[in-house]
Amino acid sequence: MKIAYVICVNYCISHFNGIRMQANEWADELQKQGCTVVRVNPWDNVAWETFDIVHIFGQVDFLYNFCHRITDRNKNIVLSPIIDTVYKRWAYKLVSHIGSKFMRLYSVNYQVRISSRYIKLFLARTQHEYSYIHNSYSVPDEKIKIVPLSFRLPKMENVRKEDFCLHVSKITDKRKNVLRLCLAAEKFGFRLILAGSISSEEDFRPIKEIIDKNENISYVGRLSDADLLDYYCRAKVFALPSINEGVGLVALEAAVNGCEIVVTELGGPKEYYGEGAYTVNPYDMDDIGEKIMQALYHGKGQPQLSKTISEKFNLQHCVCQLREAYKSILS
User: Fold this and answer.
1) Is 130 within the bounds of a domain?
2) Residue 101 lies in a domain
3) What is the pLDDT of residue 216?
4) 2 forms bridges with which residues in the sheet?
């Protein structure tokens, strides 16, 4: 099977862009499993008709023109729309109708709707995302398949847990809800370690003010993979109380390395853990604090959660599901 991978240049600005990382990991594993994957460079002359699959990642601003023009050369177009939103499905659907082909006014939501006739298969990461594709874009069920994401860092043996809660993200991204997490740590007194990047010192200031006042809260900056894995192996709890989250791969990596998981009740992330994680209302600071305290001193998911994640969401298994999804439109 020969597959073209198409992403927007915006996703290449940062090495840590989640969409770029997802595409790269899938491409590498597909090649290990015997497929040929070409990461399309727009400067190259591309023979689109030579590919079995053309896979586009993200709701990109060139989607309609690309699909409309390429369909005469290749009809096996696959889209991973990557829908991370807090909008209601009806609002998402409404926005998808706002646009004009005549005036060339193409919002990304509008483009997905008008491009859907050219797209043979949509891939969702969760049932939550599936429902947005089906209900908001009116895509029929038979054109959507769920292919979950996998954890990136390996599962370690003989982990040694300490009584602290870990959080990893772009700390200043408001949708990650770090300020409310810090306030919960301040009130309930649990030890909290924050890791990840910040956008600016100004954006970081409200969080830093809480850190400076509380010895139980610390920020360790952006970590290398080796250091991140070490924190996963030592943390008793990993908290991801996001207001808006697609999957939250850092929580998946923490879970496979023995962390109890406290995750937002909103969106799709909770689907990966079943009953093995604590879910929280991300707008309720007390709920966040109480669930983290329960996870620290009682726990309910581990070690079974680690075993389940390891079996269901390893890269090889997830990419096998991806290959089957591709085959479904080739046959």
Assistant:
1) yes
2) yes
3) 98
4) 36
Domain check: are 137 and 30 in the same one? yes
Tell whether 132 and 169 lie within a shared domain. no
The answer to whether residue 100 scores a pLDDT higher than 90 is: no
Domains contained in the chain, number: 2
From 23, 102, 15, select the one nearest 60 (Cα to Cα).
Answer: 23
Within-domain flag for 157: no
pTM of the model: 0.90
The predicted structure's pLDDT at residue 15: 72
Structural domain for 294, as ranges: 162-312
Provide the pLDDT for residue 82. 92
Both 303 and 326 in one domain: the answer is no
Q: Do 140 and 173 fall within a single domain?
A: no
Q: Give the CATH number for residue 116.
A: 3.40.50.2000
**CA-to-CA separations, 48 to 3, 45, 53, 86, 251, in angstroms, rounded:** 10, 9, 9, 36, 37
Residues 233 and 324 in one domain: no
**156 domain residue, yes or no:** no
pLDDT in tens, 288-306: 999 999 999 999 999 999 9
pLDDT (tens digit per residue) in 207-227: 999 999 999 999 999 999 999
Are 325 and 300 contained in the same domain?
no
Residues 20 and 108 in one domain: yes
The mean pLDDT of 306-325, rounded to a whole number, is 96
